[in-house]
Amino acid sequence: MGPTEKKASVLLDKKLLVFMDQLELLEEKREKLNSLIEQGWFFMSKARYSMGNKQVSALQYGNEMEPLVRVNTRRLESGEAAFQTDRNTQTTPEEKPLAEKLVEDIGPKDTEGLRRRTQAKKVLTTEEGGRSATETELLRESDDMKPPPSSKLEHNPQQNPLRWFGVLVPQTLKQAQVSFRQVIELSAEVAALQSAVLATRKQLQQQMMEKNGPQTEGQ
Amino acid sequence: MAGRGKLIAVIGDEDTCTGFLLGGIGELNKNRKPNFLVVEKETSIAEIEETFKSFLTRNDIGIILINQFIAEMIRHAIDQHMDSIPAVLEIPSKEHPYDASKDSILRRAKGMFSAEDFR
């Protein structure tokens, strides 16, 4: 065995060890993914038990859907692909503070454009008779600058999918949602790892061909 | 930033789809085309295959999750897909636990250790 062949063998061994490590990690993550999915189903079954059999099914899916999670993909130089989940948390009404939610729930929804409180301002100016005209003008301006009331929540397609199944859903359905959110995060990791395994396998095959090529040609 | 990311698609039984949609992956695009397929008893293999192929051609999909027992029905189509994006992930279903020996990716990786490679 020549020195170049020995070097190639060492490189091949190293690559093989990396490949084995990746396979081991993939198996580990797979196991976790599968157990999380099972956990999600278990919670969903519990929710179905308390809500009724037909209450957690495809019939309840919303007629408008916007993804709350997306996956950023990137091709690396080594030939593998990187996957990273990106959860859109800003637009989910569920995540907003409680006080803000209360205002939105009880606030006007159909008569947004009509609620100009000019009458109320008049009363205010007559009550505070001593106030100058410029002050009242400023008051009116500041009122006009206020942001308009929030848009209707019912028509927001980016609402929490839990709402499809009712307003007051059992805790178990929320737990199922948490489990599946974790599954989604993990599935991106598994996808990246799968891609890495295939890329390493390709490199390993190339190195093997380079090493065995002259021998097989000679045979 | 969120607008640039790709979608996660699902082909699975009702519980699998419901779970993942609950997790927030569901989308109905402008043409009212969903990124999921609920496979029921009456769903034909041709329909599954067609949906899978349409997901492969859509460039807004990054990952396709598919129940392993459904993947078995369209194995030839899955084996033909060699590109890394969209990634195809086989997942278990309620009635069919995950079997690593059936997984396309692991079978490809296992092929690494055939006698042919060790000549």
TrEMBL record, chain A:
Please provide an example of a Pfam family that matches this protein in its UniProt record.
Vma22_CCDC115
The record ties this protein, via PANTHER family, to: COILED-COIL DOMAIN-CONTAINING PROTEIN 115
State the protein's name.
Vacuolar ATPase assembly protein VMA22
Composition bias, Basic and acidic residues: 106-115, 137-146
For region Disordered, the annotated ranges are: 106-158
Superkingdom of source: Eukaryota
**Which InterPro entries does this one have?**
Vma22/CCDC115
Report the record's Gene Ontology biological process terms: vacuolar proton-transporting V-type ATPase complex assembly
Gene name linked to the record: CC115
GO molecular function of the protein, one example?
A: unfolded protein binding
TrEMBL record, chain B:
Per the UniProt record, the source organism is Esox lucius
The reply to whether Transport figures as a keyword in the UniProt entry is yes
**Which terms in the Gene Ontology molecular function aspect does this entry carry?**
proton-transporting ATPase activity, rotational mechanism
| Family label | Belongs to the V-ATPase F subunit family.
> Function, please?
Subunit of the V1 complex of vacuolar(H+)-ATPase (V-ATPase), a multisubunit enzyme composed of a peripheral complex (V1) that hydrolyzes ATP and a membrane integral complex (V0) that translocates protons. V-ATPase is responsible for acidifying and maintaining the pH of intracellular compartments and in some cell types, is targeted to the plasma membrane, where it is responsible for acidifying the extracellular environment.
Gene for this protein? Answer: VATF
Q: Name one GO cellular component term.
A: plasma membrane
Pfam families attached to this UniProt entry: ATP-synt_F
What is a biological process (GO) this protein takes part in?
A: regulation of cell population proliferation
| Keywords tagged on the record | Hydrogen ion transport, Ion transport, Transport
Self-association state and partner proteins as the record states: V-ATPase is a heteromultimeric enzyme made up of two complexes: the ATP-hydrolytic V1 complex and the proton translocation V0 complex.
Supply the name of the protein.
Answer: V-type proton ATPase subunit F
Q: Does the keyword Transferase apply?
A: no
